[in-house]
Amino acid sequence: MKLYTSPGACSLADHITLEWIGQPYEFQIVKGADRKTPEFLKLNPAGAVPALQVGDWVLTQNTAILHYLMDRFPDCGLCGGSLEQRAEVNRWLATVNSDVHPAFKPLFGATAYLEDEAAIQKSHDNARKQLRTYFERVDAQLAGKDWITGSRSIADPYWFVVTQWAKKVGVDLSGLDNLARFDAHMAADAGVQKAMKDEGLI
Ligand SMILES: N[C@@H](CCC(=O)N[C@@H](CS)C(=O)NCC(=O)O)C(=O)O
């Protein structure tokens, strides 16, 4: 298995998950314009990370990759036991992939085409406000828990990654003490540290 990842991008979630699984894998860093080369576009026509190569087969889309890893290694301890626990993992994974991740887009330049500094700033302020509501929700979910769904799952690394983004782009996370606790224990985790080191982040 080979993971294509960009430093600190959403693909860091897959990188951490691979570390937690503990099976052999390789990774390749692809940054910025490298994601648009003909070679990489053959792997992922969307020109985006993550991509996971397994022999001749390449899987894209973060949640598909995370589910593939979870299903391929059922003893990895990231699956959740019951049908309901698995559904909870899906709920929090869907929220982070479908709602939270796209909500960062204005802050990552998606509204630059407006070419109007005031309008662009407004889109940034609005994104920060919207993002705060998502982080408030996960903070409430984390009350009394170390992991988002109560036990370690594929949802945790993805939420960790977007929390790093939130800190970087100035989303107000003040008072979200459960989230701060989650962020601190994830940051101290050996698998998280290994993946972050490999991506040159620490
Ligand atoms: N829907 C895709 C989104 C992937 C995505 O947005 N990846 C970003 C990094 S976090 C990327 O590579 N962006 C480069 C680009 O789209 O040009 C998924 O869930 O895998």
Structural summary, described in words:
The protein has 202 residues and is of the alpha+beta class. The protein folds into 2 domains: 2-76 and 193-198, Glutaredoxin; 83-189, Glutathione S-transferase Yfyf (Class Pi), Chain A, domain 2, CATH 1.20.1050. Helices cover 53% and strands 8% of the residues. It is built from 8 helices and 4 strands; from the N terminus they run βαβαββαααααα. It has helices at 12-21, 38-43, 62-72, 83-103, 117-141, 155-168, 177-187, 190-198; strands at residues 2-5, 26-29, 51-54, 57-60. It has a 4-stranded mixed β-sheet, with helices on one face. Helix 1 links the parallel strand 1 and strand 2 (26-29). Helix 1 (12-21) runs antiparallel to helix 6 (155-168) and helix 4 runs parallel beside helix 6 (155-168). The protein is globular, with a radius of gyration of 17 Å. The model has no long low-confidence stretch (mean pLDDT 97). The protein binds glutathione (GSH). Glutathione (GSH) binds next to loops.
Please describe the topology of this protein.
Blueprint lengths: L1 E4 L6 H10 L4 E4 L8 H6 L7 E4 L2 E4 L1 H11 L10 H21 L13 H25 L13 H14 L8 H11 L2 H9 L4
Parallel strand pairs: 1-2
Antiparallel strand pairs: 1-3, 3-4
Helix pairs in contact: 1-3, 1-6, 1-8, 4-6, 5-7, 6-7
The structure holds glutathione.
Determine the number of helices (DSSP H or I, runs of at least 4 residues). 8
Cα Rg? 17 Å
Low-confidence stretches: none
How many individual domains? 2
- Summed over residues and divided by their number, the pLDDT gives a mean of 97
User: What is the CATH architecture term of the largest domain?
Assistant: Up-down Bundle
Chemical compounds bound to the protein = glutathione
> Biggest sheet, strands in spatial order?
2-1-3-4
State which percent range the strand residues make up.
5-15%
Distance between termini?
A: 24 Å
Helical fraction equals: 40-55%
Would you state the CATH class of the largest domain? Mainly Alpha
What is the approximate shape?
globular
Oligomer: single chain
